[in-house]
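Notes from hallway chat w/ T.B., transcribed later so I don't forget. T.B. wanted the structure written out for a chain they're using in a teaching module, and asked if we could keep both sequence and structure tokens in one place. Agreed to drop them here.
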Amino acid sequence: MTKRLDIEKGRLIYTTDLGWIDIGHAQGDDARALWGQLIDETPTPLMKNYFLVNYSQSMSKLRIRSGIQKQWKVKKGLSIETKRSIALSMMFNVSLEFEGLQSNALFSRFIDSGFSCEDLVSNLLGFYSVVLPRDYMSLIKPKPLEYALKIWDYYGPVGKYKNHEMKAYIFPDPEMFPNNAYPYKKNLPLYLSSIKLFSSYENDIVMTYNNAKAFLDLKL
């Protein structure tokens, strides 16, 4: 669960273009593992023209790690553009499953993280930093620490605001709109919307090999 202290420690920032961003999610570690599999095309026994891709998202609390994992069969030799589209679709699909897991009754009693307004867009920022590297931090225009704290103190914790879409959740400066400042969603900038979700699942390019499964591990 994201707290005000995360702003002071630099783990949560407020930006002009994308609103709140979770720096941990925006690192793109899980996207990097996913993209590496699509690029490497590691051979799979008994699958001459295909390779397997595994992807998961998880969280840890009180030494318990839980998450969602899924597996696909992908055709070899696809273009980079097609692989980017497939990777985005995989990431978004598992993200929705994972945020849904955090929103169920078991977790929502203790955390407000499910579909928190910064989650999906932070994942997307991390994804783009891996598959189309550039200086995204300058593009999203981070605001000063004092400004981020002001936004938090006025609007409240980020977990109060739920976002199920790949859109930015913007919180206007309350000093510019006294007594009339309300958060709103806006479409993503071009630099985070150039890759389109893969939609050609009716052919033999990519197929679900194992449906999304929830897992629970005890960390010793």
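Follow-up for T.B.: The chain has a mean pLDDT of 89. Might be a good example for the class.
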